[in-house]
Design goal:
It is built from 15 helices and four strands. By secondary structure, the chain is mostly helical. It has one domain (7-320). Strand 1 and strand 2 form a beta hairpin.
Length: 331
């Protein structure tokens, strides 16, 4: 494995870590409007309050790593998706402020609840739109973006935006199953069933459309002998979905969340099948966009130290705040 390929896998890992870790607390915000005001919302927010800000470390690493390791790709992608990226960042700001002010300003708690829910919904939707905009293709001429301001907006990007929202709601509901009990946990099982069915429907819809967006996608999925390997992806989705349904029926507490994460991992592998070895799909490959070898080596030394540190403190924080959140809102 050469350095550009290694860095592509490092960035893919950072993106996956962000999606699964920040995904469930964004999912809590997406579910917030259907939770009862008072104890239920307090429990839900406190279940993620100790860890939510650390989860976003991976977002910073993914964006910063793209700039440092693949500067050409960064220069092309950013102008193509400026609008949804700005929307995502503003939404994350409102959501982050709501975590603090909701408790300090009880007179306006209704406003901070809206900020938390709205920020979570918009951030998730914007992330899905960015994904859709990348998959549907970016107009590149020479070494720069040559499309328009609104190229990111299409029926397909709206579909991927909706898919991410529903997928994050699945992560949020299964997180509540694991972290709460009583009435809220019972309702979370119902939300997980609905979100699970919606997520599978969205996976099917996106999977049916994606191979026909670019000729290369179709070749990577269906050309012989590639199809022998790519066929394992939908098979794994079916197996994980069946296990997820059984875990809900048997009222498992931890397994639904773990299977939801597995479902995200399998679908991300499917995205990798469509995109790799490009970093700007259909336009720029990872080797063409990579920084000089000396820069990649220098950053790799830093990453080999920082990534274990980040993983260690993340694991430690989750261990410290393990267990159920009580009705008073505390672990």
């Amino acid at each position: 494995m050469d350095l550009p390929t290694l860095w592509a896998f490092i960035l893919a890992f950072a993106v996956f870590a962000y999606v699964v870790l920040d995904g469930f607390d964004l999912g809590i915000g997406i579910l917030f409007p259907v939770l009862d005001r008072g104890s239920e919302r307090d429990q839900a927010m406190n279940s993620v309050a100790p860890v939510w800000d650390g989860n976003e470390t991976w977002l910073v690493m993914g964006g910063g790593g793209l700039l440092a390791a693949f500067p050409l790709a960064y220069a092309i992608v950013m102008p193509a998706v400026y609008a949804p990226i700005i929307a995502m960042l503003l939404a994350l700001v409102f959501r982050g402020v709501a975590f603090e002010f909701r408790w300090r300003d009880p007179r306006h708690q209704w406003f901070w609840d809206i900020s938390f829910a709205g920020g979570s919904l918009l951030a998730a939707f914007a992330q899905g739109v960015i994904l859709g905009a990348l998959l549907q293709g970016i107009v590149v001429e020479g070494r720069q973006y040559a499309g328009g301001w609104w190229d990111w907006l299409s029926p397909f990007s709206l579909l991927t935006g909706l898919s991410v929202v529903i997928g994050y709601a699945l992560l949020g509901s299964t997180w509540l199953i694991m972290k709460t009990d009583g009435t809220l946990q019972g309702r979370a099982y119902n939300y997980a069933r609905l979100a699970g069915a919606g997520t599978l429907a969205c996976i099917a819809a996106v999977s049916l459309v994606t191979p026909f967006l670019e000729g290369e996608y179709y070749e990577r999925w269906f050309a012989w002998p590639n199809v022998l390997f790519t066929a394992q992806v939908p098979l794994l989705v079916i197996i994980v979905a069946a296990a997820f349904a059984v875990s809900l029926r048997r009222r498992h507490e931890h397994l639904p969340f773990l299977l939801s994460l597995t479902l995200f991992l399998v679908t991300m592998a499917g995205l990798g099948v469509s995109i790799f070895p490009d970093i700007v799909p259909g336009a720029v490959g990872i080797h063409e966009a990579a920084a000089p070898e000396s820069s990649l080596i220098f950053m790799l030394v830093g990453a080999s130290v920082l990534i274990p540190v980040i993983l260690t403190y993340t694991a430690y924080s989750y261990w410290i705040f393990r267990g159920k959140v009580g009705h008073e809102g505390y672990h």
